[in-house]
């Protein structure tokens, strides 16, 4: 007989593993400790542990060449006789790091060619072989015991029935459905990919375009961490320099999108064929497995999602990269619209290319808001780019809240006079200290900060503003504050790391309540009909399909921008940056 809180685990039928039921107190998801024997010389190819630790310190401290030479001089003066210290200058350390780099999949330099205006333009691309990168992780005895290759379904007994819960990607629907489509014995090898531009210098014009990969077969605490098995830079995309003579032309925008997809085709090239045929791999447990690589999750902001899906963006007739919602219905979350599919998009592009004239082709593409470019992800079997695109909680806080809800609230409070502005600041400053919550001052003066700051501002806003934006003193401000409260409810449900059918249902109702209040607030001068608001419709569809939102939040990926900026500032000569930055992205 089952007991209350018993946990039931069902494996995908093709795994051949029978379902299991565990008592709640006995249930564990951590794998047994790895039995792999420790490496006798884990610091190789460095000649000693001392040399490795000195080189590691120089790397972590971002020492320049002169500083590294001084450090080595000091070490030579105090080195003991027990270990031989052979470094003489920075070149020696560089050579050792180069030797280490061959132990992991390095970067390939390639040149892509894309036609434009009767000419061929070339761009440099740096990327890793994605299959070999994944194989590095599969071979690692520290990571392999944590990897999950069979879809799983968990449920918890509530005294009457088993209630399903979802957290990791391999506990959600898409992973299960993909494994159901594979030949018997096939295992999904699921990739999470992120791409976005970033400024490398605070005051200069240098920019980078990193692509970050993670393996969804690993649990989130490893995958989203900062150590082995976390995010790796696997590509450095070219950035097309703006041409004043061409800027704004549809053909120029299409050209920049074509450069992106031609580059990404190269990055995906090692996976494309294997996604159709599979690839056998001898795993560390001496069991050969038949892996089928898939792009399970694409983590990006709205602008990058438009590029990935090749839609025309915010001004097109169908501005959502996930579904076919009309451009004038973005605020309405009560109605469901048909999803976009990769097959449909490819057929539209092919049909448009078959039209007799360029005008007819353009009209055909406009009907679906697509561009005349073949999508790089079309080469991947069991991958639908529109399905892989995922709602992003970071930009929900940093975009929707910061740029719209908070900006409108600031305007209303300022309109009430200086005393109310000062009271708002005092209320924030008086907020009790709390762990992992930034204690903010002069909040009403904040005009630029990262998404995490605005996330903290949103957590305190109801407490800080409820006595200021009253229904009598500011009816519109009071209504906006109620909208923000519903926004916070949506965000609270979206932030959960484990979901049940009940929390998903409650989250959907919260989205509808938020949208309903915004439609009332839409009577103000503010236009709330924009894509970033509409994307909240897809939050809980994504959770059912790909697990909790932390699986596709851009926050862990954007956190990596800091180390890239450090490499640019401290380890490059500010010219020909890409090969220098990627060298240190081991």
Looking at this protein, list some descriptive labels:
single chain; 7-stranded mixed β-sheet; 21 helices
Structure description:
The protein is α+β, with helices and mostly antiparallel strands and 586 residues long. Helices cover 42% and strands 14% of the residues. The chain has helices spanning 49-60, 65-78, 90-101, 130-139, 173-181, 220-223, 250-277, 302-309, 342-353, 358-366, 385-388, 393-415, 418-429, 451-465, 475-495, 501-521, 531-534, 539-546, 555-559, 561-571, 577-583, and strands at 7-11, 20-22, 107-116, 119-128, 152-157, 162-166, 186-195, 198-199, 207-208, 210-215, 232-236, 279-282, 288-299, 499-500. The strands form three sheets. Strands 3-4-11-10-7-13-12 form a seven-stranded mixed beta sheet, with helices on both faces. Strands 2-1-5-6-14 form a five-stranded antiparallel beta sheet. A hairpin with a 2-residue loop joins strand 3 and strand 4 (119-128). The model has no long low-confidence stretch (mean pLDDT 92).
- Determine the structural class based on helices, strands and strand pairing: alpha+beta
Helix content: 40-55%
Figure out the total of helices: 21
The average pLDDT score comes to 92
Shape: globular
**Rg (CA only):** 26 Å
Low-confidence parts: none
The total count of strands amounts to: 14
The major sheet is characterized as: 7 strands, mixed
| Oligomerization status of the protein chains | single chain
N→C terminal distance: 52 Å
Q: Strand order across the biggest sheet?
A: 3-4-11-10-7-13-12
- Beta-strand percent range: 5-15%
